[in-house]
Amino acid sequence: MPRYTLRLDLPQVESDLRPAAARGAFLAAEYVLGESQAVVPLDEAALSRSGTASVDEASLTGAVSYDTPYAVVQHERLDFRHAPGRQAKYLEQPLFQARQQVAAIVAAELRRAMR
To answer: Is residue 64 in a domain?
Structure first.
């Protein structure tokens, strides 16, 4: 009966997959940004225009942020009135609802890298 030996260079595997994981994290953050854009409060659209997606490649952490002085207040204050279809928790809710899509986006990028 033949014997087979599998040699796995885990540092090399990690090195090869890291760029794909970072790309997946960025694409997933872009997806969440798009979902949040549909519900972000609108007045003069400054808040909406300030939305960005980013990734820290060292920690493989994706982020979605809105950069206005009132972004956090708009997100947290549940008592504010918003236009129809717009809401507080404009990041939290879309991220929670998209968690399966986020995982699928990252997994797809990793699968592409392993081909």
So the answer is: yes
Q: What pTM was estimated for this model as a whole?
A: 0.88
Cβ contacts of residue 11 below 8 Å, gap of 6+? none
- 63 within a domain of the structure (yes/no): yes
Q: Which residue has tokens 């890298």?
A: 113
The range of the structural domain enclosing residue 41 comes to 10-113
Q: Are 21 and 110 in contact (CB under 8 A)?
A: yes
pLDDT per position as a tens digit, 27-82: 999 999 999 999 999 888 999 999 999 999 999 999 999 999 999 999 999 999 99
Counted domains in the chain: 1
Strand 61-66, strand 51-56: pairing: antiparallel
